[in-house]
Amino acid sequence: MSKMREAKQHDIFNAAMTLFSEKGFDQASMDGIAKLAQVSKRTLYKYFPTKDKLFETIVESLMSNFDQHLPVDFDQSTSISDQLFAILSERMSYLLEPQFIQLSRLVSVECMRQKRFAEIALAQLQTIEGGYGLRHWAKQGVEQNKLSLSEPLLAIEQLIGSIKGTCYWPSLMTHQKPVTRAELNKAIRFACDSFESAHSR
Question: Where in the chain is the DNA-binding region found (predicted)?
Fold first, then answer.
């Protein structure tokens, strides 16, 4: 029964994503979502009482890519670049997924259109530590005199931002396909090598 519920919720979620993307939030109807998901309206409203609740679920799904990353310890036996590459190539792999790009585009558009959705997204974003667990890593590197960082948290965010500038924003804004694994790894390696050159002691 649990698997059946999960399957229905998954179908509703995908149907909402499709219609919100095609028509926009305001023009998409709950009737249309139920029809596309092939569920009854009663079932739809059981899981998602309103369209706003559906949108909140979509935002939660998007934000889950940035959350739940355990802190990483600094390893003095491995180069700074290699440590960063191993972590980021795994934890940023969501940039390869077409659904992540679709989620991002949908949420971005609706947040720009309606303030209440921007507030929902911001509220969820503020619950996430960010940095893929590397904030702890950076602080340890400074404490162990291996990294020279006046602002460790800012340096990590700029590192991640430089990768997204190549591998995320073009796909989001211009409807390009997500990057390939080779393209992502190349961008991450370049960013990690640059970080080491700029901040190693």
Answer: 29-48
